[in-house]
Amino acid sequence: MPYELTDEQVMLRNTVRRLANEKIAPRASEIDRTGEYPYDILQLFRENDLMAVNFPPEYGGQGAGIISVCIIVEEVARVDASCSIIPANAELSFGPLLLAGTEEQKKKYLPRVVTGEIIGAFCLTEPEAGSDAGAISTRAVKQGNEWVINGRKCFTTNGGIADVYTVFARSVPDSKGIKGLSVFMVEKDTPGLIIGKRENKMGLRGSPTTEEFFEDCRVPLDNLVGNEGDGFRLAMLTLDRTRPVIGAQAVGIAQGACDYALQYAKQRVQFGQPIAKFQGIQWKLAEMFTLTEAARQLVYRAATVLDRLGPAIDRFPPEVSMLSAQCKLFASEVAMRVTTEAVQVLGGYGYMRDYPVERMMRDAKVTQIYEGTSEIQKIVIARALV
Ligand code: COS
């Protein structure tokens, strides 16, 4: 199934590209240096209705497809990967709610996510449950008309700034592994939700990542999303839908590095001519642009297939989960390789913080890790194959 952008999608891309160039690019280096959350850029996304473009129209969204989320995220990541998390996150954090929430739950949260009034955080990972997401030990126990949550989460994107936390916890007593996990919505001021340390990361420094402690954290019974025991499936289904968005982020980072390396190579003179005239540099650039375009094709193809199927599904066919994993695997590997090459094209200048390519290289690394490492993507792909 090929993909081709519609006129509307091209317009969206052009609009976001302009905003990214004019408003976000000039802030990128400072955001990376200070690590401060860019509330001004959050406001920019709010004002331009870019926070959750794929949410259904009945909740205020545009139902514009995962492909539109990919377009936005790619264009922003081209100039600043940290900021691209802002429009990327709604599909992940509110994914389980979109897939399995009651009408009442959806009405309560989704319209405010669309306007950007609230933002979310997806709390799956724990110190002992990363790639092995089924090993979650955070517990939720039913007491009267409440769930009481105890445990610890880590590496949570948007931790400390989110208004709502989507928490995976073991609610079925004596259950082990993937069975017995459930999803709960926990609002930020709920007593017993304690935000832990903010991580000091290699890249994506403008996007906060924290740990959370749940100490007798009580939420109403109504805050359970979907059925008890459905948590693992909802996590997997959500990740199937969001991995192309991370792929798009990786493509954006790679494209940003390609563009910068190209314009640098045209200007940088060594041995009496611009280095772009040397075949050694030309071959690097040719490979960088080709890999990036190949990654883009895979990402937008996966998004197109997912959009055709929509969210109202129990489980995607294995070949669709595979495609989602393939695009994330390939795009993130490409982002790492291309950004590393961009640093090489710039030579000593590439290694300096005064130039953006070293930031791009640091930012690219996490795309091989979060929402499932490259090795996990290979497991998903191999299982679909055999
Ligand atoms: N969609 C819906 N349900 C799924 C699913 C999917 N894509 N994949 C698995 N499931 C459900 C099914 O119920 C499945 O049972 P059946 O195969 O009998 O139907 C069940 O989960 C168990 O699946 P599996 O045996 O594949 O589970 P594993 O424990 O072996 O884990 C991996 C599979 C490794 C793929 C999974 O744990 C994973 O994706 N880990 C990475 C998590 C991650 O991305 N973490 C990053 C944090 S988010 S920032």
Give a concise summary.
This protein has 386 residues and is an alpha+beta fold.
Report helical residue fraction: 40-55%
Alpha plus pi helix count? 11
Q: What's the end-to-end separation, in Å?
A: 23 Å
Rg, Cα atoms, Å: 21 Å
Helix/strand structural class: alpha+beta
Report the β-strand fraction as a percent range.
Answer: 15-25%
The tally of beta strands, per DSSP, is: 10
For the biggest sheet, the summary is: 4 strands, mixed
- The mean pLDDT is 97
Order of helices and strands: HHHHHHEEEEEEEEHEEHHHH
Strand order of the largest sheet: 1-4-5-8
Poorly predicted runs: none
Which ions, cofactors or small ligands are bound in this entry? coenzyme a persulfide
From the spread of the alpha carbons, the general shape counts as globular
